[in-house]
Amino acid sequence: MINRLTFESFDRTLHDIMKNVVNTISNLSFGGRTMVFGGDFCQFLSVVPKGGRAYIIHATIKSLPLVQHFEVE
Questions:
Q1: What is the H or E stretch that residue 10 is in?
Q2: Does the reported pTM lie above 0.70?
Q3: How many CB atoms lie within 10 A of CB 17?
């Protein structure tokens, strides 16, 4: 599973790109673009070398503030 920091940096990158295109869209998650993520997020945990349970949970996608905008189908 990808570390949550990857999603955060991708989100910031799309914010920066879309800010140059349309100023009103830049405050939306992923720059207002639709993202499709696949997989079962309950089955995989991120690998944190020498990290305890709290560090592993913090590294997962479920700890992202962006998750509140996700739709699960």
A1: helix 4-21
A2: no
A3: 12
All structural domains of the chain with their residue ranges: 4-69
In sign, the C-alpha dihedral spanning 41, 60, 54, 28 is: negative
Burial code (b: 16+ CB inside 10 Å, e: under 16) for 25-48 equals ebeebbbeeeeeeeeeeeeeebeb
Residue carrying structure tokens 């305890």: 52
pLDDT, one tens digit per residue, over 23-56 is: 766 577 888 888 887 776 666 666 777 878 787 7
Residue 56 per-residue DSSP state:
H
DSSP secondary structure of 37-49:
--S-TTT-----T
